[in-house]
Specification:
alpha+beta; Structural Genomics Hypothetical 15.5 Kd Protein In mrcA-pckA Intergenic Region, Chain A; 9 helices
């Protein structure tokens, strides 16, 4: 798991990439940074691209080498749009899907749930947060974990859960399924610019 001083990161990159920073106190203009003397300064093109990369990396809780590996695979995918390929790979990580379905309130908690063996894919327990789910996969809670305190009141919470179009949630079963691949309209709702990220690594 990526462990970082979250408030400090939120102030530096100017975006609420962590749930604990999602309040006005930590909202800054994303295109500006501060010099060592504390004065605002305009970022260069490289700086802006680096900022977008950091937003995405921290949002998904990935180390640099992990994130770079996703970008390399997206760029190497023949006949594919690297922007959509990257977005699809990040979104279909098992820990992210658990979070998107509302089974966990944060991606960090979702990653912990997967690592501790509480989550199943197609009825099989998986402990790999980076596992890539596919269309048709059903993601649920392991039978032996259903009554744990971790999942108390989950059914009630799921009633108000909003999931992206590529996922389907069954509140009564407390499970969800992948019905399609993440699409461009899903990408438009993100807080970072994937095109800038691809350009950053293409230098």
């Amino acid at each position: 798991m990526l462990k970082q001083p979250q408030y400090k990161i939120c102030r530096r990159i100017g975006s609420a990439v962590f749930s604990k920073c999602e309040n006005p106190k930590f909202t800054l203009t994303p295109t500006r940074a501060r010099s060592k003397k504390g004065r605002p300064r305009q970022l260069s093109e490289f700086g802006l691209q680096l900022l977008e990369k950091q937003k995405a990396r921290y949002l998904y809780g990935l180390k640099e080498h992990q994130f770079h590996a996703y970008v390399k695979k997206a760029l190497a995918k023949k006949g594919a749009n690297p922007v959509l390929a990257l977005y699809g790979a990040l979104e279909t990580r098992l820990d992210n899907v658990v979070y998107r379905l509302g089974l966990a309130k944060t991606r960090a908690l979702a990653r912990q749930m997967v690592t501790h063996g509480h989550i199943t894919v197609a009825g099989r327990r998986l402990t790999i947060p980076s596992y890539q789910v596919s269309k048709g996969d059903v993601i649920g809670i392991r039978v032996g974990s259903q009554n744990k305190v971790l999942f108390n009141d989950l059914s009630e919470k799921l009633k108000n859960q909003s999931t992206p179009p590529w996922l389907s949630l069954d509140v009564s079963k407390r499970e969800g399924s992948v019905v399609s691949v993440p699409a461009l309209n899903d990408y438009s709702e993100t807080i970072f610019n994937l095109t800038s990220i691809i350009e950053f690594y293409s230098r």
